[in-house]
What we know:
alpha/beta, Rossmann fold, Pantoate--beta-alanine Ligase, Chain: A,domain 2, 2 domains, six-stranded parallel beta sheet, 19% strand, globular
Amino acid sequence: MSLNIITTIADMQSVSSALRKEGKSIACVPTMGYLHEGHASLIREASKNHDIVITTIFVNPMQFGPQEDFERYPRDLERDIAIIEASGGTYVFMPSVEEMYPSNFQTTISVGNISKPFEGIYRPGHFEGVATVVAKLFGATIPDAAYFGQKDYQQTLVIKQMVKDINMSIDIHIVPTLREKTGLAMSSRNVYLSEEEKNSALVLQSALNIGLSLIAEGMRDRALIEQAMIKELSTIQEFRIQYCHAAKAETLELPAEFAKTDEIVLLIAGFLGKTRLIDNMLYSRTLE
């Protein structure tokens, strides 16, 4: 099937409903465009497991704060379409802002505790925008499953909670973070980084690996794990840390000491120049 581009909610719902009646399984891959190999990996994974893969492209103004980069967020539709096609996508849902948020739009979705720490502190309103747009995209595409990247770790927890709480019968699949050859987590915003900054940004992966090594050696004192990561991040003076934490992977709780059985997520966010970077790594007992 060649790639089909749909721009209205009504048309998307009509197409998805017809495909479901034919017995087709549908996966949705929500994106804000300016796709890279990380997005391509989501589309490929979805196409392995489903008959139809709908990639959405929508730069969502509701999840950008007043001082954030909505207007300068990179866009390249021709490139996006080529990547989707090459990765096994079958449909693109590409609505306008007016289509998604008409003048009388009044409803938002707020997810509770899981959205409050970390990104919730530094980007107030962000997850309300994410939950609202993802719910609307699911309502338009009517998928059986949706695919997200681990790089936006807290976002994946917010979406899982929303799907569970609202009784959406959608399977949420989280695909491991894809990295550049250097180890830098792939991101559409990496285009903002100079070559020197890209090299400096490798300190995030280095700090996360230090944290993982300490946990693997038996360290369970949260403060000591975080101190070691912060010490590594501080070797790059230009990197301005917003947060650097070890947390319980399922709840994002911050205990003084982790239990031996806890799955732990290490999360870092901060600025390098004008570019905001986030990264994370998971530690599971299965790694021991």
